[in-house]
Specification:
Layout lengths: L20 H9 L6 H10 L6
């Protein structure tokens, strides 16, 4: 992940957490990670990772 120097919107909240791919996918299955941008980015990116 690359740090972005841009300021976040007042309505945005970020937490940078390093987790395994398996844990990330479990969080998606548990509906803890649910936002559309994250899910679509992962759908495009996951083919480039090995589990």
């Amino acid at each position: 992940m690359i740090h972005s120097p841009l300021q976040s919107d007042l309505t945005e909240e970020f937490e940078l957490v390093e987790i395994s791919i398996n844990k990330f996918e479990k969080l998606i299955e548990q509906n803890i990670i649910w936002d559309g941008l994250t899910l679509s980015a992962w759908a495009l990116a996951k083919k480039h990772f090995t589990v």
